[in-house]
């Protein structure tokens, strides 16, 4: 991003909205600039959704995401699976589950395939409450992207999909390299004794 482009972006957005991209300077590598722009866009959308969920429904984005996962899996989910889907610790899921059970939005049932596990499912009240939130959530996103041409949204969606696949491949490569380095360190430690 050259100084002129950065200045125009700050002028368009204003200092209060530039966010993460304010960190970028002309000398930064393009990969850093792309990452900061993605982060800034994601943060900006997330802040607006969080504010609307709090104002309209008195709830939080993590609670909304939790209910959304259960809505997609009507038969219920094991707590450990729910934890992976939400990318949070088991303790966070347990605490949130306790709250939502107390409010009558979810229920725990014994897992017929594993006596040590529970399945968590939406109650009828939970399904109704979530349906209302989900409908408004979709409207909010539609409002946020209003004015951006459909072709641009399609292109952006496709490019972000390619990025996800690329990052997943890189993650696998990084994990393999890390395991190889760990093995080499363990071998070296073993030969030093």
From TrEMBL:
PROSITE patterns: HTH_MARR_1, HTH_MARR_2. Residues 31-165 form the HTH marR-type domain. InterPro entries: HTH_MarR-typ, Tscrpt_reg_MarR-type_CS, WH-like_DNA-bd_sf, WH_DNA-bd_sf. Keywords: DNA-binding, Transcription, Transcription regulation. GO terms for molecular function: DNA binding; DNA-binding transcription factor activity. SUPFAM superfamilies: Winged helix' DNA-binding domain. This is MarR family transcriptional regulator. It comes from Aquincola agrisoli.
